[in-house]
Every structure is written in structure tokens, then in C-alpha cells.
Amino acid sequence: MKIATWNVNGVRARREQLLEWLDEELPDIVCLQEIKVGPDKLPAELAHLPGWDTLWHGTGGYSGVALLVRQGAGLEPPRFSHPPFDFEQRAAVATLGPLTVASLYVPNGGKNYDDKVRFYDRLTAWADRELERGGHLVLAGDFNVALEERDVHPKERKVNALGQRPEERQMLRILLELGLTDLARLHAPEDDELFTWWAPWRNLRQRNIGWRIDYLLADRALAQRSIDCRSLREVGTSDHGPVVASFTAGSSETPRSNATGS
């Protein structure tokens, strides 16, 4: 099984890149953020994507998330929904039997920092309930926080910058402490040049001067089945790169409550 997340920063602008990448990467579940379009304005080849079950959750030219589930991948048909903390089309959920996957676009906080705090608080409460239910949980998306200092290139570090503040990092740590594993860091514990977002100027992407703010978080039992987790800096022209995790086949019936203790 392969799960991916990608902030495409406008799915219409990245339409051909997305379709090409889907064919090359062959992910089973894809979480998209900042699609910046409503379902009624989607290009036809995305609105009727052959071989995929899809949920497009957006409006206008701002925010929006999507979930794509490959048909015939051996997964149960998805049941799509929106968690109660969703606002501005920032959260969508696919339930595939015992597996729950959420596509998330956390507010940056620049427009209204309180929105970011509320989103994290409500996401954490929701994830806690989901973990108590059993099965598996994956939270995927743009969390707009660099968890550690090394998750920001030295040239980009700024005291009290949004996404780098101690209180923001603490919100993400509290979420992880529920019993979730940061898959990219699990597989690259010593990599201090692991980034997922690059400001679109001064060739920062080419120079890999970026931030790590896009994550795949999995319950610990599922994380133990992960093979790798890659940030694909070379893919597409969004200011974010896709993040992709692969998992071995195995029972998906392991209760989360048995795998999330300290």
C-alpha cells in the first residue's frame, strides 16, 4: 500500500503534472491540499478520473482538499466524510474498513492565528477519539508547522516566524503524543535537509533551502509496517513537493489502542 500527500497549490494549474505523477508513482491513496477549486469547476479529466474514487472538497480560488482512492488496490471502497472541525474546506476523511485517512490543510495563522489554534485543538480531540475506536489512522497534509528547528533550513530560520514558534511546535507534538508516528522522520532520523516546502523565489527549491511542513502521521502499528517515506522535491511546480509512504501488506485489524501507548 502506498499513501501520498501533496499540496498542489491550485489543482487546475497542476492538472497535467498530477495526472502524470499518478501514472508514474501509482499511489493507492492520495491526499491533496490547496486545490483552490469547487467540484463544479474541476477539469473533466479530474472530475471523472478513471480508476479512482474521488472526493473534491473546495470552493473558489482558496483552500480546499481532496481524496483520491485507487480502485482495485485491494482496499475497501471508501466512505467519504468531513470531520466536525472542518472549515474553509480544510479537512476530508476517507474510511476504508478499519483504515481512516484524513487530508488536512491546517491554517497558516497569518490571517487569524486563533483559527490555527482552534483547528489543532479540534483535530487533536478528533484524532484521540479515532485512535480509541481501533483500526488504523493516517493524518496527511500541510500542517503549517516545522516540528523541529532542523525542519527549517538555517537560512530560513527566524525567531517568532509563523510555523516556527515554540507554541505551534507544541501543538503538533501534542498531536503526535496521542500515539502517532512522523513517518518521514522515522525513516530519515539523521537527515537535516529533509524539506517539503520552498518559497518560490531565489531558486530556493533548486538549492533545497526549505521547510518541512507537510507530514504523513500514522498510528504506531501501521508505522511499523512502513517501508519508507519520501519527500519528492523534483516533482511538479507547486511550492510543495509530494510526500509518499509505502507499507508492507499485513493485517489491518490491529487495534490502535494496542499500539499507541507510551
In short:
By secondary structure, this protein is α+β, with helices and mostly antiparallel strands. It has one domain (2-258): 4-Layer Sandwich (Deoxyribonuclease I, Chain A), CATH 3.60.10.10.
Keywords:
six-stranded mixed beta sheet, Deoxyribonuclease I, Chain A, globular, 21% helix, 262 residues, alpha+beta, single chain, disordered C terminus, 6 helices
Description:
- Helix 3 (113-133) packs parallel to helix 4 (166-176).
- This protein is an alpha+beta fold and 262 residues long.
- The chain is globular and about 45 Å long.
- It is 21% helix and 27% strand.
- It has one domain: Endonuclease/exonuclease/phosphatase (Deoxyribonuclease I, Chain A), CATH 3.60.10.10.
- The protein has six helices and twelve strands.
- A six-stranded mixed beta sheet has the order 3-4-2-1-12-11. The protein has a six-stranded mixed beta sheet with strand order 5-6-7-8-10-9.
- The relative contact order is 0.16.
- The protein has helices spanning 15-25, 44-47, 113-133, 166-176, 183-187, 220-223, and strands at residues 2-7, 29-33, 52-59, 62-70, 79-81, 91-96, 99-105, 136-142, 180-182, 214-219, 226-231, 243-247.
